[in-house]
Amino acid sequence: MEVEKYEHGVPSWVDLGTTDLPGARTFYGTLFGWDTPEGPPEAGGYTVATLRGKPVAGLGPQMNPQAPPSWMTYVNVDDADAVVAKVAPAGGQVLAGPMDVMDVGRMAVIADPVFAVIGIWQPKTHKGAEIVNEPNTYCWSELVTTDTEGAKAFYNAVFGWGEATQGEEFVYTEWKLGDRSLGGMMAKPPEMPAEVPPHWGVYFAVDDADRTVARIGELGGQVVMGPTDIEPGRFAVAMDPAGVFFNVLALKA
After folding, report:
1. What is the pTM of this model?
2. What is the extent of the structural domain holding 34?
């Protein structure tokens, strides 16, 4: 699906902060068929990956050596400063910004009360991902947290998100703006290692989860879990060659 602009509160972009940027260009470019040219030196070589000539994700150097390399989700906002002002009163922390990124936008990085990290993006020339929810593009972000009720209060206060929670044995929450689903949330499962902190995971849509998993291994990545059938389709959890987690999801037709 091609997108020209995003509403306030809608996740609009994902990017990777990695210790091996050249390796990431090769890995994700080959896996998803992205064009991944090296970015300008003034941007640290940040790559805007494209599909059919349209931006779909970012690949950049790891900005905080104290944090593990990871994919980050950015939420589109009308006014980054106004949103950031809501973070501390809601119990979160502002980790960076708000700051202008050349002429492309104004950004900030925040953490919720249990320190799951998410980005804020006020667009200028860069509107966000121009293709989403189709094979080889970003399709979903999911919060894994130790405090689901606290998260509901925080993200409602900061982004105005509502939520719909379902399930008894396995409880899952969808973040909502009106009737629109924006992403998901689940309690951190007991089988997840204790050292894995609360975090926002990123999903990429694929045609065939099993074939993609095989390709991940061929390219030097690892499959952590799956492929597994879930309600929306068939998914797997993987790590790229630099040890960064990401998810792939073959959506049901």
Report:
1. 0.96
2. 11-123
